[in-house]
Design goal:
This protein is mostly beta strands. The strands form seven sheets. It has a 22-stranded antiparallel barrel. A five-stranded mixed β-sheet has the order 1-6-7-4-5. The protein has a two-stranded antiparallel sheet with strand order 2-3. It is globular, with a radius of gyration of 26 Å.
Length: about 725
Amino acid sequence: MKNFFLIMLTSLSFSIFALEVEIETIEIIGSKDDVKEVAGSASVITEEDLETYEYTDIHKILSNVPGVNFRPEEGYGLRPNISIRGTYADRSGKITLMEDGVLIAPGPYSASSAYYFPTAGRIAGVEVLKGPAAISQGPYTIGGAINLLSTPIADETGGLINQEFGEDGTSRTHIHYSFVGDNGAMFVESHQWETDGFDSIKEYGEDTGFDKDDIVVKLRLNSDADAEVYQELNFKYQDSDELSEQTYVGLADADFRRDAHQRYGLTALDNMDNSHETNQFSYLADFGNLEFTATVYENDFARNWFKVDKIDNQKVYGHGNGINNIIAAANAGEATAIAILNGTNADPVEIKLKNNNRAYTNEGTDLKFQFNGEVHTLTLGYRDTEDSEDRFQVYATTPWSGGKLGALNVGSNPGYSSNNRLTTAEAEAIYLNDEFSMGALTVNVGFRSEDWTIVQERYVDSARSAINTEKGYPKTLSDNDNSLMGFGATYEMNDNTQLFFGFHEGFTPTGGGADPEEADNLEMGVRYSKDNTNMEAVYFDTDYQNMFGECTASGGATGSCEIGDTFNAGEASISGLELVVQTEMTSSSGVNYPLSATYTSTDAEFDNTFDSDFWGSVSAGMEIPDLPDSQLALQAGFETENGLSGSATFYSYGSTCSVASCAAGTEIDSYNVIDASLAKTLNEAMDVYMVVSNITDETDVIARAPKNGARAQMPRSILVGIRYRL
């Protein structure tokens, strides 16, 4: 159906547009040269940068950005866990995620965990905002914001076909075409990505990969470029579907050492099925010194992750029946737990699977006024947001013995429970930023105010005939507001060197019982740029008055908790150093050698002692979990005059633990990965490339979540592709 829709739009468009016009991409920062104009540290990854490796894993893309950490999961980056300057990484729930400046998390307030993330393979650029610049892009303003840039309408009629093939039945087809006229343009894009997966399921022959398809359509109407008041109306439609054979269950340590890429047979039925749709209208009016933009958007996301949740083993040895309890018992040498995981249990046990069936809405209006004067640039923004998360989750059971699953028995629909609920959120935000220059000194002063309400309804029965008022529903989970200030200053020491300093108050809204996060954030740094050399060094410090953790199925909690509950951790301190060096050398024969190094060092610890169902038993001075103490990316490449180019990158990730206590079986040691690429331009329209990931085929433990099991990175893989520009 999608392909038919795409063909029809393409055919229609040929009859409408024939001329050319230049248009702008929806950006917050702009080009790499504009980074030094930002009130604080920021990074831009361009389309040219992305073409070097054609990465489809957002974790790998962001490895070259200082101050950004992550916790990998299934090896493809389908559901990222991203941290900026030490924010808790689980499902990227504590950073502001955007596509083209619009909030993209399924429920930014009601359920911020990003089970949806835009397909990185169709993204044309990435902007990362940290420091005081991030307060304009809330609500998550402690760490910062990530803005993904969709493929823009081209300057002139034309397009691209990128076809890629790789191991494990991997195929990726990316096609886009722009039809551009004087007063209008149209853009169509298709991204189809599939693989059989690199894991195997013990005693089963099923694939462990996925099939994910995206389609994007953009329309633009605009006045003449030389009009007294330039106006532009844009429409964007995006639709994606994913069907993946992914699981939450990792491996016990002994099984990981035996075969890091084998899954337990009890996960053979695990499956993620989701779909996402965006409708977005935006209007621009440029009056010269005054510019006005308005965006109205709606995002809808539905997903059902059917997966192993519990094992009825209480009668066997009395430990908890969560899959995380079974893996912990196996790591402790419990014979019965080991037998259950490997399917050699003498007595059948019941596997309890859950339809994690949820639907999300996220809609809003975003307004911005910007006045550009001789000395002042004044920006005023307003955003009105409504979002929701609807859960209707049904259990199923099956017997497990002899390494095989039995017949599936679907349970009854949920009555009154946490599996039958609707959470809604309403929020308003306003921000004001004034940038003014005084010779070599530029000062930015920003203010943000946020007001939100989160309400939850739970129903008496599966028919949802009534809300359970006897239990206090509808219940207001949060009715709060927050105002914060930010200050940034840059000083041009000379044509090549710039000093900058920033301070801002940050916060994270919550509706799960804990207090909102609040933190004071400071950064100071220096930038140097001359000829082909760029350097930047930044020190940052985050002082939490309160940090909280949110209970999700994807990891983090040390005890039992209800999904969505949040738990205070109190005061915490995070500080670190970010370094970037980029240069390019040219040999006498005309060969260019681009070189770069990106390094982040992070020191993050709790400042108080407490016990928590989420954090566990914590003593002051313990390190915050799932946050590597260092991250390094060293990249070296070459570019010849005859169109041959290559690059190799060495990634090094420091050690951490999956829980604060760093108990046995929760350690994640430091590990390294090397990737390389080679490309050859055949003519003006065509080039071919090859990418080899994890050249040395490392099998280190890179994460112990979800569900406490050990997980390895993708094994060595080779991809070949061809890009043809139309």
